Protein: Lipoprotein
Organism: Streptomyces achromogenes
Amino acid sequence: MSPRHALRPGAWGAALLLTVLIAGCSNGDNHAPENSTIPSPSATPSSAPSAPVSPEASPEPSPVISYLGKTKIVTLGDTEIRATRNELGINVACNATNTADRTRNIRVTVSIGNGDDWVTTNNFNFKQIPAGQTASESTVMGGSYEGDLPDDPEIHIDNVVYY
């Protein structure tokens, strides 16, 4: 080999130092040392498109309870139940709003009880509710109950189904 094509000892040292800096020091193991920091995949920029992040499941909405005179009002999302005790039983009105951009059906299941030993359930079925409209229906619940009906009944919106 001619002296012209051979690397000088200083060049070999620089080449070795450059190789070590680029490749990094390694003891042959394929894992990082315990005290090193590994960047998380989300912090590393990537040119490849990533899949869209799905939103976390939202928690179930909590009912809001209010009173208007002797009427107890329970609101859950776009559904409102109003219950008032009268001489025939508990008058229950269900109002459900279709907030979708198309006509749809809504079924609301409501349970009313005294919190002890009596519960009655009713289904309100609203058919073909136009977008943005509110459907209303009322019924008397607990009329056949032989005990004393509560003045402040427990009201549960068991489920609301849009279809």
